Amino acid sequence: MTLPENSENDAFDLQNFLPFLLNQAAEGSSLEFQRVYKDRYGMLRTEWRVLFHLGSYGEMTARDIGRRAKLHKTKISRAVHKLELRRYLKRSRDEKDRRVERLALTPAGQTVYNELRGIARDYDARLARKFTSGETALLRMMLRRLAGMD
Description:
two-stranded antiparallel ribbon, mainly alpha, 150 residues
């Protein structure tokens, strides 16, 4: 196997490649919060994302969560199953379409959501303090644009 030659004309710099930087920032900034939901509640990333969607938006279908969270249906299905085993969510059949399951937090799930939401707010504020308020607003706007949320 031959390695590509690096030449002076090759201006590609991995350390400044936007997808690389975004990934590094996402991983680095989420590690501390990940420890909280993993160590305290035994949840994986997809599980807390499902929990947060139900806590933030109320009753939803797995398809609704998938669209909003940009998660594959298989991952959502596993997360829903694990959250249901912990009694953090409940499923119910849609009255109009029996093929559709509605998902909602149980009182225990709502309690966990409330606790994690407070921790997430504090963590978000700590991250934001690394920047001026204008920089934070600009960063949030640019990230929402990249994510297709604007």
